[in-house]
Structures are given as structure tokens and as C-alpha cells.
Please model this.
Amino acid sequence: MELSKENIKVMNPADSKIPEGPVAEKWTNYKAHQKLVNPANKRKLDVIVVGTGLAGASAASTLAEMGFNVLNFCIQDSPRRAHSIAAQGGINAAKNYQNDGDSIYRLFYDTVKGGDYRAREANVYRLAEVSNNIIDQCVAQGVPFAREYGGLLANRSFGGAQVSRTFYAKGQTGQQLLLGAYSSLNRQIQLGKVKSFNRYEMHDVVLVKDENGVPRARGIIAKNLVTGQFERFAAHAVVIATGGYGNTYFLSTNAMGCNCSAAMACYRKGAYFANPAFVQIHPTCIPVHGDKQSKLTLMSESLRNDGRIWVPKKLEDAVKLQKGQIKGSDIPEGDRDYYLERRYPAFGNLVPRDVASRAAKERCDAGFGVNNTGLAVFLDFSEAINRLGIDVVRQRYGNLFDMYEEITDVNPGELACTVDGVNYYNPMMIYPAIHYTMGGIWVDYELQTSVKGLFAIGECNFSDHGANRLGASALMQGLADGYFVLPYTIQNYLSDQITVPRFRTDLPEFDAAEAECKAKMDRLMNIKGKLSVDTIHKELGHIMWEYVGMARDKEGLEKALEEFKRIRKEFDTNLYIPGTQDGMNVELDKAFRLNDFITMGELVAYDALNRNESCGGHFRTEYQTAEGEAKRDDANYFYVACWDYQGPDKAPELIKEDLHYEAIKVQTRNYKS
Amino acid sequence: MKVNLKVWRQAGPREKGGFVTYTDVETTPDTSFLETLDILNETLIEKGEEPIVFDHDCREGICGMCSLYINGHPHGPATGATTCQLYMRRFQPGSTITVEPWRSAAFPVIKDLMVDRNAFDKIQQAGGYVSFNCGGAQDANAIPISKVNADEAMDSASCIGCGACVAACKNGSAMLFVSAKVSQLALLPQGEVEKDRRVRAMVAKMDELGFGNCTNTGACAAECPKNIKLYNIGRMNRHFIAAKCKM
Model:
């Protein structure tokens, strides 16, 4: 499976469908000239939305409010449990309520810069533009954002920004925003405009050719996870909102059920997969503690507002910490290395996530790690507690402190010692972990994939974050796509479909797709080998983290691609799934997902190998400055890498979407001054 | 450390279930309870047996998916924590831990420890929202809301919809769950407009779906992993009576 360099194609710039005009006017112009569907016709059109996270739930409810008929699917027992619910810190918007100089342009600029100049400019400007509407929308739904005593909304700062633009609801912002979208969804379910299918997993997207021979997405095959039966669903358009592929790494902050199978099904049917190498590693997670661990827990980035990150200055102190002979609070102030404040004076502890993660790895690789594995740094609240008092700090981060204590048995708000009248509190220990994936299904400005009638929104598309996502921007993007972008842009497609009658699910295309899904299940059940799904998944995750993780190089990536072949063979020949296909079979469902994680892992490695530069979350050790900062290559890699599926045993082909920046001057990212 | 797990196994909704005891399950104090079930499941798979089915997803206490009744308590012995936030250091080595699904007529068992909580969604669909279409909202700061009300609404809105309150209640009542949503929206000006209609619809749906009456014992609030307060029920009753009087 060699990557063929000769076959690299360049995408026609028109395919991105970026509207004419200056960047600040593109979205307004688009809306003014796009085609709409009238109310009587909306009633005749059906849309499938797969996923009920922020993007899926907001899109499903808004499309239904507009008058479309929506079929909405989730793998959990209720739409309210999608993994958006676990987002802690907040959501960005350019409201400038704090009068600190924020603006739509500044949010746009910070997001493009934070993404290391690999995002599509027009998409990001639109995102910044609708960010303010999102906050209005959520407040109107009854989302209980944090407020000041005067009754107005409160804000806090997040990484990669010099203004306070993050709106929050304690440390549970994702939960509150998702419950807001869920409430709108519930209203539409009650009104009969949305049909909700819980515990259903999409296995394939069904394409039907139109009269001109163009394949269009016309439905899905979904498995009822309770009965084990496949069911067919038809619609005029299909929207995928199924999240990212972080669980390819086995250990991540994603929920256990998060998977990339729906996205991979689209990929196999011709939807390009863009920038898979852009994976975000979050700097503040609870470190790994043993080989039985099932997932990693995130500690919100908001903690970096008041927490200071450090390791010992002296190697001997670090060694003592690793041996458990001393505690962090035993190390005097003068012997602490607040390395982010030292290296990046302008942004300090609030540098973007990729920068903070690499800096932690650099210190730990140099031997300064602070726990028994040597893979942890301190996040210390002593200064904040001394400045603000424990009550204020607890009000801000209390639930995170409690969560940390429950998992590690250490209370970060507890006084450890007093030296020269200064109180020192127990620090948290943190280490980077896989958290979010910027890469995803390629979409044009209308959020349509390279397959007609198939749209991708939220984390599962690639569009807005470039090579690195800033904190509190995932919630913004999910809701922007679902509430304010897709419900408009999809009409530009559906307006041509008003004369197309409802599809029947007994078309030969549905027969073939369902037969293929069943055959795949038969194949998995019949392997009858010896290894459990998790055993193989852990092996995959180990290779991913080791060679396709925080620091990558050519040799390691080539080794990873070899290892994936071995893992693929192991999966195909030595997997064991107990039970039968009738009824619920959790192991079979996990095997179905792992099959796609292996393909996904290969895709990440291919892309990482192709991109001979370091940018954002993608760090190739061959390409760094003398100071260890990422070294971009704009001359050769100023493009979106789109991967086109060629078949199960063939390497995918690369199609480049060249980036064009008009409003922003591309420069080296600098968080130092 | 080793523990014994006495687990409810049930092949399907209409099958007869029973306890099966798995002895000497190897785990560590820093391992979570669900990871211990993972360990047990891996050994079952190795032996060619079907693993124990249980609901779980985020494993950080926020999605509300996990739902185990452990040693007589929903979510086990830790207070203010979900099953996935429960660590083995809470248990004595060598002890036998009893694990059951939520027990309530409104939450039928699907398989083993997994139950059907669709009734909760139905109650929310009956009225747990502000009737408002996307696109028409005024500026978010147009209506100041007192911090006290906003914070109290936030506390009520913390409910994760896990169903521990129902499982804890002798009557299988959903009063705490319903009152949390009623309170959140009633405390905010955006929800004020529809508050009568909402409380009537949600209470009627709750009764229709077979949830029992409030026992007034407060077991629900004592067992709630998110510390939803009992006074939410008081507030809902007050609103309900006021709304009924207006009919």
C-alpha cells in the first residue's frame, strides 16, 4: 500500500463554493442570493440527521422548525447523552461584553492563527460572525450561563486569546448547551416534525443515481442496537453529525461510544476525508495510571486561567518526586520552573493547546516529570487561592476539583504547607491526551461533502479549526453549523429536489447496501479467533500514540503503517466475538467500530507522512526551529489534504485544496511577545 | 485487590433473570468500578461467555448513561458521584459487591444491567422547553437576570437524567427529575411565559408513564449524583397547584 505521488490532483477552486466578495461580506452575500424552499415544499422533503450532539441536535431541531421532516439518530439511549455533554469550559463569541477590544474580526483572526493558518478563511469568518447569534439563541432557550451580580453575562479567558470572550455555565457548559438543543429537539419531536431513533447506529449511507447518473445520498442503513436488526431509512438529504475519531487512539478523553464508523462509511462511498493528521492533544488531562484504564479524563482548559503549570528546576527534585520521596508542595518557590510563563511571556499559561502539550512533553522527555511514570506536570492553584481565597476559586472550579479528587484521591484545594507565611496547596498532576480531531469529512462552504446530498457538520467535518482548535471553539462550531449555517445552505441543495418524490426503501440500492452490512457482520462473527476487541484496540492505540501521536517522524510513521497491516491481519483472522447476531451484542458493535478505527489509523498516518512540515497539532520532529517550535512550510503545504478512497487494499489518493487568504497575512505563529 | 461481584444477569426483557456471582475479580484501588466490570468482561470473553451488558459512555460523570444499583444504592456508596466516578478504593478487598439494574416499573430491563429510560425523554418532550424558534432571539444581555436566580437555575439544570432518583424511590417516583427541569425554566424569565402549561403537561405525562407518587422521604435527593435539591419538588408542587387553579 504505497502512496502514489504521481496521482496527486489539485482541486478546482470552484469546488469549495466560496462566495464572491470581501471576506466580511461573503456570508451576507451568500444568504442574499441562495435558493430557498417555500413552506409548502418543505413539508414534502425529508432530511436524515445522524447524531444528536451540539451539531446534530441543533440542526435537527432547526430544520424541523423551518418545516422539513427530520429523522434523527443516536447510538445512546437518549439524544441528551451525546458526547458534547462532556465539554466543560465554555463557548466563544465576539460579543465584546467585557469592553476589552473584541470584535468579529479578532475572533476570526485568533481562530485562523490558532489553527496555524490551515483553515479555510471564509468558513472561519462566517463562524465568528454567527458566534454572537449562538449566545442569543442559547439564552432564549433558558441556558443558565454564569452571570455577574448586575444580571449580565459573565466571561472568562481561554487559550490563544487576549480577550475574555468565553461564556460558561460552571464547568458544565457543554451539558447546558446540549440540553438547550435537546429541549428544542424535544419540542419538535412532540410536534411530530422530528422522529427520534435512539440506540440506532448508522452502518452505511445509501447512494442512488439521479436521471443524469450522478450518485446522491438518499438514505442510510442503521442497526437497531437492541434487536440487532438492520433497518432502512430514506430521505432527500443525509447529514452526518457523528463527531471525531479520537478513540482511534484507544485512550482519549472521548466517551466510550465515540467512533468514526459513520464518517468512514461516507469515506468509502466517495466523500473525501480531509486533514486526518490534525489531531488535538489536550494539555490538561489526568495522567494515565495503569494498563486497565478505559479512558482519560479531561480537566478543563479554564483551569489555566488561574492555575500555573510547573515542573522542578532541579533534576534531582524531579527524581525524588518520581520515587515518591517528596511531594510537589515540598519544593520551594525558587526551585519551580513555570516553563510556559518562561517560554511564552505574552500568553503564559494560556498558550494554545498544541503549544502547551508539546512544552509538557519536552519537559517530561528531559526527565522533569513529576509522578512515578515521569509523564506528568503540576497545575498549581496556590497563587490563585492566596490571591482570591478558596471560596472564589471553588466557585469557579469546584466541580473540577471534586472530580479530580474522586479519581486521584488528592484534593487540589487542600492546604499542604505554609512556608514563610505563604500557603501552598496540593497541586494537580496533568499530562496531555488525545481530545479532539480537527480533521474530518471534507465539506465545501455549504457543508456539503464531495458526495451530492451528503452533508457533514460539527467535529466530524474538517472545516474551521485548521491544524489546531482553540479552547471553547468546538461548541461554537457545532452550534454554528447546526443552528445557523446548515439549515440555510442545505436549502440551496434541496431547492432542486422539490419535485423528487419520497424514496422507497425497497430500491435495489437499499437491498445491496443492507446485504453488504449483513455480510460484514457475518464475516466478523465467523472469524472465531482468540482475541477480544479491546485487546486489538489497545494494540492499535499503542501504535497510534507512540508513532502517530504528539511527535511524529518519517521513520515512525512508516513503521506505524507496517504495524497497522499486522493489526489488520490480526483483526481479520484472530478476533473473537461471543454470542450471536440476534438481539443486542455489544462486542459485535465494538468490533464493527474497531474495523473502521484501523482504517482511520492508516489514514492519519498517511496524511502525517505526506505533510512534511509541522503545524498546529501535527508535529514532525524533522521540522522544528532551533527553539523546538513548529516549523511550517507554506510554500509546499498551504493546502487542505483531501483523501479519496480507492478500495480496501489500495492507498487513498490525495487531492489538494489550495488555500487562499485575502484578509489575513500568513505569518509565523508567535505567542512569546 | 480482589473482590467478588454478584451481578444481575438477564438475557432479554421477557427472559427470567437471576444473580450470578463472579469470585476473585482482580482489580486495584485506583481502578474505577466500571473498569473492574471491563476486567471481568474480558475474562468472560476469554472463556467464550457473553460479557455483562451495562450502559456507560462518557465515564466522567456527566452523560448520565451509567445506571448501576450497587450494594443497595443507585451509583453505589459514594455521594454526589455517578457509577463511572466510583473507584475501588471505596470497597474492602475480598468483599462481595451486589450489582443490580435500576429497579422501576417505568424502566424495564433490556439486557443484564441495561434498562430502557425512554420515559424520561417522553416527559421532557411533553413540555421541558421554551417554545421558541431559532433565529428570532434578542441580544443575550437584553434581559438582566439576577445572579441568584441564574445560579439556582444552573443548580437545577445540572440534572443528568440518569434515573437514580427513580431507582432510589420506593414508589419509583420521578418528582425530582421533573421538578429540576420545571424549576430551571421557571426561575428564568425566558421560561416564565409558559410555566403553567409546562408544569401541567410534564406532571400529566409523568403520571401517565407509570411513575409513582412522591413518598416525601427524600431518598431521591440523598442519592442524586448531582445533588439536585429536594426543594425543587416543593417549587414544582407550588407551581402545579397555582397552574391547576388557573384552569
Remarks:
- The radius of gyration of chain B is 20 Å.
- The mean pLDDT of chain B is 97.
- Chain B touches chain A through 79 residues (CB under 8 Å).
- The CA atoms of residues 17 and 215 of chain B lie 28 Å apart.
